[in-house]
Amino acid sequence: MAATLKGRASRRSGSPLTPYLFLTPYLAIFVTFVVIPAVFGIWISLHDWDYMLDSQIFLGLRNYADLLDETSLPYPEFWNGMKNTLIFTVASVPFLIVIPLLLAMLLNVRFPGRTFFRAMFFAPYVLGVAVIGLMWRYLLDGNFGIINSIFRTDIQWTTDQPWAWVALVGVTVWWTMGFNAIIYLAGLGDIPAEQYEAAALDGAGWWNKFVYVTLPGLRPVLIFIMITTILASANMFGQSYIITNGGPTESTKTAIMTITELGLRRYQMGAAAAESYVLAAFLALVSIANFWLLRDREAAKERRELKAERREIDETRRAGASA
């Protein structure tokens, strides 16, 4: 009987290599298209890499040091791109977090045509950046654009500041807010209705329900949306390239545009790779900060207390065993 149960248990547990077998296709793709290019990119950043030449000159960390040297040629262009990237990120991310949340809460209410409006708000996101950029470039044109005609204004949306930033932020929010709204809707659907009913029985109004029920229930979704939105905004390229072409006077030329021009137009792939890794390091730090700021402090406190209790129990058992 014991042997039979042991045989059944072994068949049920299976081989310890089974999970790795299922992971093999993903790991193969991940290593081929992520790990190897990332390592090779670091190798490129250590060279004066010109893919038009047969041999590449090893520079060590000089490409990185040039980004900290005010007298070097890459310094002003790169940090101007980083500044513009920061401006766009700070200006767009709050709108892309708050507006989709309000939209999702509105679309989460049952009313006739709700599915239609959900599709309409999400529809712009399925369009490519080239389509969005060209369409809004003509709509925002200061001479014959329809935006000036509708609002009876005379604004050069693509060639004057601060209107160029207003245009880029507005287009990006209009284009991508549907995606974040759909993610919010999925999160709202996972919040149990009983929590809202219990809050209503306690006399909570809509604001208290939002603060004490909706926001805590959306914490994982909010972390995901905040991080992905920051990363997407920091990697903004197509809108600025097509609508403003980085102007006026390179005031909307982002870090990605600077890296692309340096590597693909000037054939300085080593310097461009170094700049890309510096940008990636900044984005990694921002992501870690977001995780830390938005973490569930109460749950973390409970985990620490539980670990402390287990440690005390273990120490008591050891003391008893030694005695």
SSE blueprint and pairings:
Elements: H1 2-13, H2 18-45, E1 47-48, E2 57-58, H3 62-66, H4 74-107, H5 114-122, H6 129-139, H7 146-151, H8 163-189, H9 193-201, H10 206-217, H11 219-234, H12 238-244, H13 255-265, H14 269-293, H15 297-322
Antiparallel strand pairs: 1-2
Strand order, largest beta sheet: 1-2
Task: Give the % helix.
Answer: over 70%
Q: What portion of residues belong to β-strands?
A: under 5%
Helix-strand sequence = HHEEHHHHHHHHHHHHH
Which CATH C-level class of the domain at 77-294 is it? Mainly Alpha
Count the helices. How many?
15
Which stretches of 5+ consecutive residues score pLDDT under 50?
none
Q: Compute the separation of the termini in Å.
A: 40 Å
> If you compute it from the alpha carbons, what radius of gyration comes out, rounded to the nearest whole angstrom?
27 Å
CATH topology of the domain at 77-294: MetI-like fold
Largest sheet: 2 strands, antiparallel
Shape descriptor reads globular
